[in-house]
């Protein structure tokens, strides 16, 4: 298998108030941890970071595989499309740079599932009790959690399939928040791969503390 990785790192960290991708977790930046995880997977032959030049340059140059940069777009889907334009491998995995705890083993499981089925994504089954509220925030009814999943990344695909999905998204003027949604636009089901370990997305300052605690 030859798989390219697209790491999306073009956001402005508005909810954090500072560059969350530069924040350090046990001495290593969030973005560098994400890149290193993919570099450690044999099936990954190149990594494309979608980020501004200064953020990309902060990663350094000491990598065992080719590291490329693509410009970010107006929306996340535009950023992924820019990265996808640089892919030459038959498989591609898309990952949020703000998920620094993803393990190489989980990445490989996702890539292997995509090689077999065409589309795969790391995900976590919903285990909490779910409620639907009214407009005033009062719980009004229970929602079944059966067959519900929290979506994570990476999400991996046969490259031709993802390009087809993104072409459809563009032609139909759709707004999507992940690549599984692009697959849905062309009627392709995505295999959900259970996430074996914590894979939180750094969103608020407390997440940095949690990530540090998990690694300890």
CATH superfamily: Spore Coat Polysaccharide Biosynthesis Protein SpsA, Chain A
- The name of the CATH topology is Spore Coat Polysaccharide Biosynthesis Protein SpsA, Chain A
Q: Can you give the mean pLDDT?
A: 95
- Let me know the number of strands: 11
- The best one-word shape is globular
Overall CATH class: Alpha Beta
Order of helices and strands: EEEHEHEHEHEEEEHHEH
Q: Helix segment count?
A: 7
The major β-sheet equals: 7 strands, mixed
Taken together, the total number of domains comes to 1
Strand order of the largest sheet: 5-4-1-6-10-7-11
Q: What's this entry about, in short?
A:
This protein has about 220 residues and is an alpha/beta fold. It has 7 helices and 11 strands. The protein has helices at about 30-40, 55, 75-85, 105-115, 160-170, 180-185, 205-215, and strands at about 5-10, 25, 30, 45-50, 65-70, 90-95, 120-125, 130-135, 140-145, 150-160, 190-195.
